[in-house]
UniProtKB/TrEMBL annotation:
GO biological process, one term: mitochondrion organization
GO terms for cellular component: mitochondrion
Highest rank taxon of the organism: Eukaryota
Name by which UniProt lists this protein: MSTO1 protein
InterPro entries: DML1/Misato (IPR049942)
Organism: Odontophorus gujanensis (marbled wood quail)
Length: 221
């Protein structure tokens, strides 16, 4: 429900496959090693340099929840190391990177299994459990049996560009080129109504800096 609030009915998918965690290091260590979350945009959107989202649901798999977060009696090197559980670590990190956004974090111990027929695409720097090592291994990459994975479904401003460009592509088609489509029973009036709804949906993901860019693009068309 939070992801679909304010007429946000579309989400973008992000993933880190595998999640770059070093063997023997804690989750706070892995997150502190990166300025941003080490995931890539999977949806066909133009990736923004500015990290913003309205709401997101994040799942991390393959990280042991009972792993020690910090050492007793020592000063935590970061606020992340002061958290008690892996869920708290991930939740705190999300709130830091995406202030004001609604974020849910879930950490599951079960990794993603990568046994055959999963393709042997992994670096020899990965252990059998998909964690990074500091030395090359002589074994083939196919020996990776499982990997930790970080995924997210985001209600994000990147969807504004995706939906706007989809709307433009549909407009360029023109109704005359879709005679067979309308002959199948689709009313032209319903087509234009759906087009307007798509345009309105794209505006739900628009933010201030994107509004300026869209005006510039409109002027150049």
């Amino acid at each position: 429900q939070e992801l679909s609030a304010l007429s946000h009915q579309v989400v973008a998918a992000w993933a880190a496959v595998p999640f770059p965690a070093v063997r023997g290091h804690s989750l706070p260590d892995a997150l502190c090693a990166h300025q941003d979350l080490p995931w890539k945009l999977l949806s066909s959107c133009r990736e923004q340099k500015v990290s913003r989202c309205f709401a997101q649901s994040v799942v991390l798999r393959g990280i042991c929840k009972e792993s020690p977060i910090s050492h007793p009696g020592e000063q935590p090197p970061s606020p992340l190391h002061a958290c008690d559980t892996a869920e708290q670590v991930l939740q705190y990190h999300l709130h830091t990177l995406f202030p004001g956004a609604f974020s849910t974090a879930h950490v599951l111990e079960q990794p993603c299994v990568t046994l055959p027929p999963y393709p042997p695409i992994f670096s020899p720097l990965l252990t059998r459990q998909g964690f990074l090592t500091d030395h090359l291994s002589s074994r083939p990459a196919a020996a990776v049996e499982s990997i930790p994975v970080l995924t997210s479904l985001q209600s994000s401003p990147v969807l504004h560009t995706l939906l706007r460009e989809l709307c433009r592509d549909l407009q360029k088609l023109g109704t005359r080129r879709c005679a067979a489509f309308f002959a199948a029973g689709v009313e032209e009036e319903n087509f234009h109504e759906a087009l307007e709804e798509l345009r309105a949906l794209s505006q739900c993901y628009e933010m201030g800096f994107e509004a300026d860019n869209s005006e510039d693009e409109t002027d150049s068309d």
